[in-house]
Amino acid sequence: EIRGFIFDLDGVLTDSSEYHYRAWQRLADEEGLPFSRKENEQLRGIPRRESLLIVLKGRKCSEVQLAELMERKNRYYQELIQRITPRDLLPGVAELLAELRAAGLKLALGSSSKNAAEVLRRLGIDAMFDAISDGHSVSHAKPAPDLFLDAAAKLGLPAAACVVVEDAAAGIQAARSGGFLSVGLGPVTRVAGADAIFPDLKGIRLADILAALKAL
Ligand code: BG6
Ligand code: MG
Q: Could you say which residues bind substrate here (predicted)?
């Protein structure tokens, strides 16, 4: 029986993954590192430090330099998220969250981002969540299951009673290895392995998700 939902944030509830991309692109341009939207796909769901190491493509950096680069990327990202308002909720998100709550299901956030609480507040949906697990919560990031297990524990639910909603390959892997049901959003190439796949949450109701999962 499904009793809770754990939502990823960036790319699921809002298009902040676009802002992460722009911030990385700006940093890469300044540093003369080749980087593209296509390469950015590898960074979906991946924490700041691991992302930077991918962007650096083996370039050697001291810890001090790494810290400065991460700080700079985050500054660019934070400039971009200032403009987020409730209008930036992706289509279908507000309706689905309201329906899940009305159905008595527990809701948690499971995001790798250290900026998750601020983005959720700017979106105006922080009060809808019973628990938040974010980039401050665990040390083993996605694709390890720890973040989602942390969220489920905060909800007081076993993994098997929770559905994870994700847009990243690393997130689907994390959900699977933690024993969660998973809903993947986006191209099948990205979220292959999810128990149910939709292009996005537009028009998706609880019944659609349950029907897709029962068809397993
Ligand atoms: C994830 C994003 O949600 O959070 C990644 O998909 C991002 O792109 C990661 O790198 C960490 O975010 P932050 O805000 O802590 O740098
Ligand atoms: Mg995501």
A: 8-10, 24, 43-48, 51, 73, 111-115, 142
What is the side-by-side strand order in the sheet with 106-110? 131-133, 106-110, 4-7, 162-166, 181-185, 196-198
CA of 48 to the centre of ligand 1 (A): 6
- Concerning whether 10 is annotated as a catalytic residue, the answer is yes
- pTM for the whole thing? 0.96
Pocket test for ligand 1, best of 113, 133, 165 (most atoms within 8 A of CB): 113
- Return the ligand 1 atom nearest residue 51 CA: 10
Q: Is residue 8 annotated as part of the catalytic site, yes or no?
A: yes
Q: What type of residue sits at position 3?
A: R
Give per-10-residue mean pLDDT for the chain (216 aa): 97 96 98 96 94 96 98 98 97 98 98 98 98 97 97 98 97 98 96 97 98 84
